[in-house]
Specification:
The protein is mainly alpha-helical. The chain has one domain. The protein has eleven helices and two strands; from the N terminus they run ααααββααααααα. It has a two-stranded antiparallel ribbon with strand order 1-2. α1 runs parallel beside α5, α2 packs across α8 and α5 packs across α6. It is globular.
């Protein structure tokens, strides 16, 4: 039973990162119709930004985990805004495939630059002292930092869903995707809204990278394999579905953890098997809208 609960914990941790990354993809695609393949590279950039702040700091002052949770998403989000303004904004009137190919090429360039500079071996990142240690629950040992990651991810995901689905700002965003000319007529700067939304989605990926840094070692390829799984999560939940990204991310993380316990050989493919089945039965995804 201890091994089973251990795998469930691992599944929840993976699900927390799946949910945050797929949420960022869903926000960008659902509101902007952009398939952002650089998401994995931006997740990696968030982890590297935290590592750089810890080891080099700003003005010679080393910054730890908590400042990095704020600074890294903003810095990487600004990088995403630059990409959107200089490159992606030129492709909005073209087919989605052009944006996917552009972001895929950018992801390879970013990963290549980081690998040339830092190599492919992982670099450790120390977790904050306030979150070290663990709690003995009797049936399992619960590391405090991993519990923090799960709870923080859930809060961030639900807060994002609430803003988009239940607030006036979210209604403006959704309206801008349906009829940008009408929204612009009400005095709302739609291009600026699009740019900031893209930056927010990128910032979510960077935030997940900072949270992942103490668990997984920081390395240039940390987002390369993860992004394939996250795209599968988004497809299963429904492209552009905010709630689908959250529920599917956590749910598939748990399924993956249970598979590692009961049938380890299938743990690396179970999500893709589920994706194939969902696409055959419901092509729009579990929470997507049928057209």
């Amino acid at each position: 039973m201890q091994a089973l609960f251990g795998q469930l914990l691992i599944g929840l941790i993976n699900g927390a990162f799946y949910a945050m990354l797929s949420l960022g993809l869903a926000v960008i695609f659902g509101l902007l119709n952009i398939i952002n393949f650089t998401h994995g590279a931006q997740y990696m950039m968030g982890a590297f930004c935290a590592w750089f702040l810890l080891n080099h700091g700003i003005g010679g002052v080393s910054l730890g985990y908590w400042p990095s949770l704020v600074i890294a998403p903003i810095a990487v989000g600004i990088f995403g805004i630059v990409i959107e303004r200089t490159m992606l904004s030129r492709l909005y009137k073209l087919d989605h495939l052009y944006g996917l190919l552009l972001t895929f090429g950018l992801a390879l360039v970013i990963q290549g630059l980081f690998r040339n500079e830092f190599g492919s071996s992982g670099m450790p990142y120390q977790m904050p002292s306030a979150l070290t240690g663990g709690v003995n629950l009797g049936f399992m040992y619960l590391p405090i930092y991993r519990a923090w990651v799960i709870v923080a991810s859930l809060v961030i995901c639900l807060a994002t869903w609430y803003v988009i689905e239940r607030t006036k700002l979210g209604s403006y965003l959704r309206a801008a995707t349906e009829n940008p000319a009408l929204v612009q007529a009400f005095g709302i700067n739609v291009p600026r809204m699009v740019t900031l939304t893209f930056g927010f989605g990128v910032g979510l990926a960077a935030l997940a990278g900072v949270m992942a840094a103490p668990i997984y070692q920081v390395n240039p390829l940390m987002g390369a394999d993860l992004i394939i799984v996250v795209f599968a999560v988004v497809v299963i939940g429904g492209m552009g579905s905010i709630l689908g990204a959250i529920l599917t991310g956590f749910g598939l993380g748990i399924v993956e953890g249970l598979t590692k316990y009961f049938y380890p050989e299938a743990s690396s493919t179970v999500i893709f098997v589920i994706m194939v089945i969902v696409l055959l039965v419901r092509p729009a995804g579990l929470f997507g809208k049928e057209k």
